Amino acid sequence: YTPFDVQAVRRDFPILQERVHGKPLIWFDNAATTHKPQAVIDRLAYFYAHENSNIHRAAHDLAARATDAYEAARDKVAKFIGAGASSEIIFVRGATEAINLVAKTWGVQNIGAGDEIVVSQLEHHANIVPWQQLAAQTGAKIRVIPVDDDGQILLDAYGSLLGERTKLVAIAQVSNALGTVTPVREIIAMAHRVGAKVLVDGAQSISHLKVDVRSLDADFFIFSGHKIYGPTGIGVVYGKAEILDAMPPWQGGGNMIADVTFERTLYQKAPNRFEAGTGNIADAVGLGAALDYVSRIGIEAIGRYEEALLGYATQALRAISGVRIIGTASEKASVLSFVLAGHTTEEVGRALNEEGIAVRSGHHCAQPILRRFGLETTVRPSLAFYNTCAEVDALVAVVKRLAARR
Ligand code: PMP
User: Which of 365, 370, 380 to mutate to test the pocket of ligand 1 (most atoms within 8 A of CB)?
Assistant: First the structure.
């Protein structure tokens, strides 16, 4: 099923013409980072050639251009995720900084000794470590939602973790290690019933699923630009207006102040209060261009194509003797994690790389979930809408060849 012309899409991504070890590059490391369409590369170049300035709108013409471009990008993000207002969008460096910002502002203000922070067993280290640090600082406790043998959230077990001590639930919408799509809508509704807030880690969902933060009723939603065909070094915190308004600032400096004397500082409103110093203006603008690009193709069309490709790849890999797929949830997005009997994951990764096929083999910054399955590492091909069945065939051929040499 092809809802768009994949070959035309591929021509939009110059890096897909690269050769590696004399072979055409096959990029199956999309969960780590995605490639950039020419439209994003051009937008960055245009910014530096025609608009580059710090963003003090009133200062001069280029400042107005840069400010307009930066704020237009904020509007695009707000629209893309269904936020109520662009002032609910804070630009940060990436998903990691986004979670740290929430932990060190909202978290410090709202979480105390004996309070509980609920995370799932699926989380990326970026959605574990900041909460652990907060817990160590405040005397709060971390509670963990277990998953079943398919890598799916156990909702009953989750329900029994919730109580009046629960202050926050921090949950990935899509697991970067297994590809599981988690039932965030139910998770949020259940958390709200006990008065807890929910942070959704959208680092892996943003490029695959239609996100609507208001319909989900997420309190925070965070993601990285580089995983949705945008630049590195730019990411997003969405927070509900009433939550951001009550949140203390994090870093102090320029941009985030309304007035400074040696005795005290008055802060700006959100989002500026959380954007101290000169931000990553160009890359925010680049992210806006990436969201425009994705919107032109349509996130639903992208999701349907990737689902079909994932199904094709899963069947082909499962048919190889010695392959064990980790993460067999009924709802998955774009990630295939596997091990091959008789071969280390490193060997598999190396054999693929020799054929120009890029996958990640390692712990994927999600050690707890791999250990849940008795593993330290897996091989993880992760798909995007510019990948093809022919590329999957190439990957499968290498794994088959290795499997035959057990
Ligand atoms: N959460 C998830 C689910 C991720 O997959 C990643 C990136 N692998 C992150 C958080 C962290 O993102 P970044 O490294 O861009 O800050």
Answer: 365
In short, whether 124's Cβ falls inside 6 Å of ligand 1 is yes
* Residues 33, 229 contacting (CB under 8 angstroms): no
Give the number of other CB atoms < 10 A from CB of residue 406. 10
Last residue of a domain, one of 274, 296, 318: 296
Q: CA 378, CA 363: separation in Å to the nearest integer?
A: 7
Instruction: Give 3's pLDDT tier (boundaries 50, 70, 90).
Output: confident
pLDDT tens digit string along 110-128?
999 999 999 999 999 999 9
ipTM: 0.99
Q: Which of 243, 277, 296 is the last residue of a domain?
A: 296
Q: Which atom of ligand 1 is nearest to the CA of 96?
A: 16
Q: Note if 365 is an active site residue.
A: yes
Domain assignment present for residue 341? The answer is yes
Evaluate: CB of 121 within 6 angstroms of ligand 1.
no
* Averaged pLDDT, 179-200: 98
pLDDT score for 2: 60
Taking the C-alpha atoms of residue 160 and residue 334, their distance in angstroms, rounded to an integer, is: 30
CB 278 within 8 A of CB 254: yes
Q: At what angle do helices 281-297 and 38-46 cross, to 10 degrees?
A: 150
Catalytically annotated residue among 41, 365, 375, 389: 365
Which atom of ligand 1 is nearest the CA belonging to 123?
3
* 54 and 180 housed in the same domain: yes
Contacts with 181 (C-beta within 8 Å, 6 or more apart), sequence order: 173, 174, 205, 209, 329, 331, 332, 333
| Residue 321 structural domain | 6-30+298-404
